[in-house]
Structure prediction request, 282 residues.
Amino acid sequence: MSKNPSNAPFSRRSVLKYMASAAAACPTCMSVASALASGKTEAGHGAAKAAKSGGHDAAHWTYGGDTGPQHWGDLNAGNKVCSLGFQQSPVDLRQAIPASPGQISVDYKPTTLRVVNNGHTIQCNTDPGSTMMLDGDKFRLLQFHFHHPSEHAMDGRRFDMEAHFVHINDAGMLAVLGVFIEPGGENNVLAPVWQHMPPSAGPEKKVSSVKIDPVKLLPVDRNYFRYLGSLTTPPCSEKVIWSVFSQPVQASSAQVGQFAGLFDMNARPLQGLHRRLLLKSG
Ligand SMILES: [Zn+2]
Prediction:
């Protein structure tokens, strides 16, 4: 045990405090957060529209070619951190420091199915009332969406898919829960989402007759990796408390294939961890 005061960030309180002050210093981040909080965007961390509402002209971006991840930072003045930032996401989850980064306690409620194809992913917007306590701080669930393949990797391995549950607290901080999805049995919670997901980009589709319970998409084992990172889409704002569960959930190969049929590749390349702490619970 070192006497170095830099040990302080290992405590969960100071990690969160550090994160909060970093966000407060970033006006772009806050404009994203306020757009999210006011419900002006369904983007969550697909923040092109959030950037627009923050005064930037949201540029078209993709996962390949001339507007792909290597160029995101140049597409728009508000995207610079995509290429210049040192706290970017996703990362490879390896050599994590065993720690007690705090308990995640989820209180999700069944929500009416409201599914949108925003051109970058399939996203389910959730009804108000689902919350998560993260180290004593309350975050509200806004939406969840999917990536193929997974964005984060574990020891260099990417999973078939990853779900992101995007939350915000009253201070405008974002907290995202990441859930890996591997091929296996059919996923009953995903089934109605897949059944109704629009095949092309367009407005939200509300299916009043269908309720889904998002908590059933989380793994039984709630051990997780924790680090401070960014949106994984432009404008890549560095204001996200990431918690990625180590235990994957399952979906059938047919379900994975159906999503891949719409989004063959919607995962940002891995970003360097640089000097950040990567903690592992349990
Ligand atoms: Zn995502």
Observations:
- The pocket of zinc ion is lined by residues 45, 145, 147, 164, 232 (CB under 6 Å).
- The chain has a mean pLDDT of 85.
- The chain has seven helices and 16 strands.
